[in-house]
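Input (structure):
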């Protein structure tokens, strides 16, 4: 705990706390997603009230607004209704099994569950900080983290509907019964994230595919212009870009086949 936070927690009124969630699916071919809990928790010592779309506490206006992203330590977190429980640790030797319930109104998590086998094995980090420490505040402090930093893996999906998805988390050492492989072994569907055209140039910030050439094809494999370049994730698309003699970065298993027992 930093000196700033250590001193701050001694105050009778500490200010609004924020829960920031990072879901890192890069290990299974996905991306890193950053969310801030849209429903901020209040405390008896520091109640919060809504004034239109503006959140207020202790008589001071907070820059974080409903449905507006926040920035902490240089990372932008998108608002997302999240309910989480079970983070408490005990001295009895058993590790906590937290649960998180995230909004599924947009269908994003239904899509991710379908694409990445219910996100099992994906890393989830919960970071707690104060509203006064956000990058947009005069008192911004990227080190103002309330420890412990909670880092868990998704152990299983426990519920899903059109409104919400619920996951049970577990510590990395507590994932008993895990089977190999820990990611889907797909024959002809590359798990790499391809570059994106941002209107002026290619954006490689979230890309895991190293291709930076000038062969442009759409998802159907038809030659096209740079602005419409998109990979179809098939082995043939990798060959078309790198050539038959290259060492292909194809993140799939073209030699795998179904085995009947």
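Output (sequence):
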């Amino acid at each position: 705990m930093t000196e700033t936070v250590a001193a701050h927690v001694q105050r009778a009124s500490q200010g609004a706390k924020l829960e920031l969630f990072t879901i890192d699916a890069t290990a299974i071919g996905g991306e890193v997603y950053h969310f801030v809990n849209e429903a901020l928790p209040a405390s008896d010592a520091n109640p919060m009230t809504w004034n239109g779309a503006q959140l207020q506490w202790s008589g001071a206006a907070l820059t974080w607004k409903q449905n507006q992203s926040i920035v902490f330590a240089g990372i932008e977190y998108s608002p997302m209704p999240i309910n989480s429980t079970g983070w408490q640790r005990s001295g009895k030797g058993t590790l906590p099994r937290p649960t998180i319930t995230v909004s599924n109104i947009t269908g994003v998590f239904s899509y991710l569950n379908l694409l990445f086998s219910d996100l099992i094995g994906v890393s989830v980090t919960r970071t707690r900080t104060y509203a006064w420490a956000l990058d947009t505040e005069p008192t911004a402090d990227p080190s103002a983290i309330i420890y412990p930093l909670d880092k868990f893996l998704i152990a299983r999906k426990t519920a899903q509907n059109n409104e919400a998805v619920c996951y049970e988390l577990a510590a990395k050492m507590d994932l008993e019964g895990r089977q190999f492989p820990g990611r889907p072994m797909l024959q002809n569907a590359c798990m790499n994230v391809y570059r994106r055209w941002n209107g002026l140039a290619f954006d490689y910030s979230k890309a895991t595919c190293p291709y930076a050439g000038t062969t442009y094809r759409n998802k159907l494999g038809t030659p096209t212009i740079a602005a419409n370049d998109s990979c179809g994730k098939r082995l043939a698309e990798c060959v078309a870009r790198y050539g038959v003699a290259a060492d292909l970065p194809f993140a799939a298993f073209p030699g795998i086949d179904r085995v009947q027992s």
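Notes: Residues 3-174 form one domain. Confidence is low (pLDDT under 50) at residues 39-66.
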